[in-house]
Design brief:
heterodimer; A: Immunoglobulin-like; C8orf32 fold; Jelly Rolls; 3 domains; eight-stranded mixed sheet; 11 helices; 36 strands; globular; B: 634 residues; alpha+beta; 17% helix; 41% strand; peptidase activity (chain B); Papain-like_cys_pep_sf (chain B); Transglutaminase-like (chain B)
Amino acid sequence: MRKFPIVISILFISIQFLTAQEVKFGEVTKEELLEKEYVNDKSANAVVVYKNQNTYYVNAGGDGMLMTKVHERIKIYNKDGFDYATKSINLFKTRHDSEGVSKIKAFTYNLENDKIVETELDKNQIFKTEASYNYKQVKFTMPNVKEGSVVEFSYLISSPFIWNIDEFRFQYDIPIKKLHAEIRTPKGFKFKQTFKGSVPFYPKESAERDNRIGMNVVINKYNLNNVPALKEENYVDNIDNYRAGVMFELVSVNIPPYFKSYAQTWKDVAQTIGNSDDYKNELDKSNSFDDELDILLANEDDQMGKMKSIFKYVKDNITWNGIDGKYFYNGLKKTLKEKKGNAADINLLTVAMLRYAGIDANPVIISTKENAVPFFPTVDRLNYVLAYAIINDKPYFLDATEEFSDVNLLPIKDYNWRGILIDNDSMKWDLIDINSPNKAQRMANLELTLNEDGTSEGKCSLRYTKHAAMDYRKEYKDKNEESYLTDLETRFNGIEVSNHETRNATTFEGPVSEFFDFFDENASEIINDKIYFQPLTFLKKGENPFKMEKREYPVDFGFPFKNTYVVNIKIPEGYSLESKPETILMKLPEDMGAFKYVINNDDNMIKLLVNYEINHSKIGADVYLYLKEFYKQIIVKESEQIVLSKI
Amino acid sequence: MRLFSYIILSLFYNLSVSQTINYSSESIPKELLVNANAVVRINDMHIEIVALRQMKITHTRVVTVINESGSKHAQAYIGYNKSLKVKNAQAIIYDSYGKVLDKKKQKDFIDVSAVDGGTLYSDSRVLFLGYTPIQYPYTISFTYEVITDNTGTIPSWVFLDGFMVSTENSSYKLDFSSPELKPNIKERNFEGYAIEREEVNGGILYRANNIAAIKEESLSPSFNKLVPRLMISPFNFYYEGYEGTIKEWNDVGLWMYSNLLKGRDELELGTVAKIKELVNDEMNDLEKAKLVYKYVQQNTRYISVQVGIGGLQPISAIEVDKLKYGDCKGLSNYTKALLKAVGVKAYYTHVEAGRDKIDFENNFPSIGQGNHVILAIPYNEKYYWIDCTSQVHPFGFLGDFTDGRRVLLIKPDGGEIVTTESYINDDNHQKTYASVRLKESGSIVGDIKVLTKGTQYDNHFYLEDMADLELEKYYKNYWKNINNLEIESYQFENNKDSVVFGEHIKVNATKYATVTDGKLLLSGNLFNNSQYVPNRYRSRKLPFEVQRGYLDEDEYIIDLPEGYAVEAFPQETSIKNMFGEYEVSYALNGNQIIFKRRLLIKKGDYVNTDYNDYRNFRREISKNDNSKIVLTKI
């Protein structure tokens, strides 16, 4: 929390006044109750008929309070819409302060015998729960709800965290017919607004005197009509990135003669964080680890070796407590003592150690995928920090929180957007792209003998690099060999695996390799003395992951990849090749991906080479249909058969 | 006499306290590490029934967590509520050498509401230790004491915590201050385990050492059916304001009826009049019940609010009538009240709900069994069952949530154990008809009708309420054997009286048949292609079960493209064995292929050595379902 001079909060003077509402509470019409479906989206189980949100400041006993008044009316069409008759209000709290909710008013309306019947929510059906250490919940569900009901509620949230204005959300998983939102901020307090989502809206700005606080205020109004529902899709990085809404960030306070600027550009953000005690002073205190590090580094001559051994040391000795953070949770000393800490404890410790070893190292602040994209220069919406080093002009990113991460191989959640480099020493603050990992590879090599009875057997070797290796390691970890094999056999179409071996799966460096012998009872089909065989056999994909007709949001693959399969097939004696699939090459537009299927043969050997690659971790919804078609062709190609006939 | 028994007791204590433990992970016997993500080093429960209204529980649990997956077995948490106080909760964490890493007192535990996602509010709370392990293995010792007035439910005991965890020392000791307070104890699944039992005047002790971990295997019975465990229930007790004595199930019913249900089915006169008007001049009780059930389904919904008597007592019918919501207890009691108002008898029934069938124990009456409430309506010497929390199930149809298991009917004059309606083998029927037009390009156009009954009805009828986008996803996944499937239209017919659900779907798909060298290859089983083969185990350890069984019948007519003839059909197959029956046949009728298939999977309990045969059966089915018809151009 930022601290503000008391002078400013004394300026608030409390006087009541009324705000005009477009839709009055309680004025529910018969038409609303009779409505059977929402014309613009017949699949909607419920619709927000109207939502009004009003955010403003008041004076409460000398301190400013941020108030948010909400009025919401929801029409419920069917049973699946009953969930929207339950409201849960999350109230943020710290050890000292807490948000509160009051003035809960709630009614259900039904049409009975052509008359509107109101049922009020009983106050003793409002439940308060301590949900976790940093928020509590107030929950209620509406009485007398049935198909066709309209429910309406209003409440007032008061927050002592006055400069943290929650994002205004203009889109839900059900459609909204009409929405009005308004925010009043004291003049002189400049809040930057950032709009997001694909639904257009246009705020209107005005100014007036607000007698509640005795100040002039700036008013921003947002009016939206017919907002479509936000629908879940697979392979989405974070649906909140696409939700219509507006975010607020205080950028400066200017009440002459007082002036102070807060984060306005990324450079300001970097400076704000860089000037915090954690980054300015604590980061260079090396006395808690110097002795141990001296021993560790004694055998390393070059910077590269030093960096790697420090990275390994931190990973081996300090455990991530699962908490994100750009500021210390424990601090360096306590982290080393307790051997655990949050992301900042771990990665700033890495920076501190790298610096101690004489390496040019700095923190890079990011927002992880779960935390959505920050969209605008902001301190608050950054939740994580990485270590960054430069050796021989080459950049290296490190995140020591994850067991299987490596230098320049970060957990996928880190590749969200960009990072803010904080180099206090050389007064350098830069924005660095961290939105895509390097391409990972999966390679498979099959030496396969096809038997006369339709079965096949052979040897398979697989190799995984980068994030494909990281995925493998996570999957393999702590599994006993037998359970792993059971899963492997099921995944590979029920082949029987023997002599299985995995190399390099329990460390974090380099590729993983896997070897096994297989026997496949159902490898092919024999019909009329002919053998029909799909040459990619159990390595085929089998199913198109993109089956839906439409796509709203970009497809996030996590990381770009290239899969290479080589299958050498020995055909049974006494058979000859009658026909084989054709060689093809396909490409997605703008080199986003490619698929190559090359098949050759001589005498009794058939050789198949398949390359399948996706070159970007994210692919836009505008090219979704190409992507869908691309996969469709792959699946069709994979199912094509080699036909062998008896000589 | 009394003095004497105390002396024995104190000897007894010394014996068990004297066991010492080495907290180092190195000291764990090798055989306990096989398949184990965690090892329960000590699990000591000591229960003292001090008086009818006082029970003390002391629990010590020491667990060595071997790896991350074992963390859930640390179980350093304890639930509590208004009538159950927790004292002296503490935890000590040791590294693998047995050196203390950290110590936590009760005040360091996190105290939160025990509300889960499906509950609006509950007054139950939980104290838990938020601990981040810094290395594996580590050992956590967790102890606490509990004091409660309630002696109605006594903690039960398992000698093994779950799959993939072993037990080094486990003991359960129960002392009671007078013979009347000696509870009923039932041992389950003790065969093959060396569990010691010692009984003295005023006390009983169970002890077991070195129980190896069990690995989870697919299709195995639930862990509860495999694990050696104890069930404990008092004969005489006090619970949330009421004393009770139970010797048989009849007593449980009587206690519940008179303390928890009686008088809670009153309704306001207006409501009574309204419901009477609703059934109007209907004379037949069963028809009246159907009307009332329909009214409840249309006017109420399920919301779980758990306050007061240990989650056992329903909120009153008057309250539910006002709110129009309630949990299973509240809605069942309300429906029972409405039925009573129109002169129809119904019994409030406790059941253990879930897809896995769990019975009420025949000779073990207790108030602690069951997790759900349904209603039984007696009519013509038969019970008709309804679940009042469902707004969509047909009258008299339970589905696989509460079917075929022993439940407790609570009647005004006592309790009775009966079995709910079962859905077995061909009760769970699916019939699929399709006519398909195949084109030269390999594309297909299909018109499909699916009729489902029994538990298969239960798995299909909710399609009726699904949104378009969800249905598109559903069918594309249901027929995932057909790539490039597009759904053209669908229609549903839900016959709630006969409990049959009908789907009529029109689809098309490009390149269903593979075109190879002027030939078309396609699987004749388009719309019920079983690709399921159970996992292979190198040595299967556990028995397995099919809880209900089902029958699928398919009949498809495939129109061939012009100028094509059948070159080869796959082999016709007919298999009959202990697990079921499978038959598939192909016939040519002019320019049409007629494909027929019948698959019966029988309900059954099987031993581990039968597993491979079952797997082979399923593999044979999968192979046959995928076999290709070859067509050639004439």
